[in-house]
Design brief:
The protein is an alpha+beta fold and about 220 residues long. A five-stranded antiparallel sheet has the order 5-6-7-8-9. Strands 1-2-3-4 form a four-stranded antiparallel sheet, with no helix packed on it.
Length: about 220
């Protein structure tokens, strides 16, 4: 089974998604969560005009993610609309310790000569559900212009070095925020106060009858 990302960046047709590394387009049945067909990507879909730059960035991104993320993370680098677009996505689920987490980042890299305009968006979801239900969702956007160097290899190295620094700084800020949250017990108590403490199952039949009663009184 091929591994590839399902994202707006990868979508090239109805239920069709590009695997840029393999140069393939996969048709996906979302209901069955299955690949129903595979074909070769056209030169336009594969971004042939920027293929050497895309491949150089892809190699650097894979080195970065393998050394800084868990094995659950998948990355993909696309050439789309005259830009190199880097997508990094991963999720962790630990049912035993009752938590889950998800990281998604997208970088649009517009290369103009020796300058690279970079726009990044990070989305981080964390969910703890031991004796309650506490969730954290954050979205962060950044925009910078960096020097790209002369060759594709130099440009790729500069792009991924900037991605690494920016994402590492953001993760450090998140770690600090969670540490402060744990230190300030009043904040955690405030989060937990609205949660159910009787541990009783919801009686949906009672709720339904109450809803019908309220509707008849209008």
């Amino acid at each position: 089974m091929p591994q590839f990302l399902l994202s707006a960046v990868a979508e090239v047709g109805e239920d069709e998604y590009l695997d840029p590394k393999a140069g393939k387009v996969h048709t996906v049945n979302h209901m069955d969560k299955a690949v129903t067909g595979t074909r070769d990507a056209t030169p336009e879909e594969a971004g042939e005009a920027m293929s050497s730059t895309r491949e150089a960035v892809q190699g650097e991104v894979e080195t970065y993610t393998s050394g800084n993320f868990s094995d659950s993370v998948i990355s993909a680098t696309y050439a789309k609309d005259g830009k190199v677009v880097v997508c990094i996505s991963g999720a962790e689920f630990d049912a035993r310790n009752m938590w889950s987490g998800r990281w998604r980042s997208v970088w649009e890299c517009g290369i103009e000569g020796d300058a690279v305009e970079m726009k990044g968006t990070f989305k981080v979801d964390v969910h703890f559900y031991e004796d309650g239900n506490v969730q954290s969702k954050s979205v962060h956007e950044v925009s910078d212009t960096i020097g790209g160097g002369g060759s594709d290899a130099d440009t790729a190295s500069a792009i991924v070095e900037h991605i690494k620094k920016t994402e590492t700084d953001y993760q450090a800020k998140l770690d600090g925020a969670y540490v402060n949250l744990l230190k300030d017990h009043s904040i955690m108590n405030g989060l937990r106060r609205p949660l159910p403490i009787d541990k009783q199952k919801v009686n949906f039949k009672t709720l339904a009858s109450q809803g019908r009663l309220a509707g008849s009184l209008k």
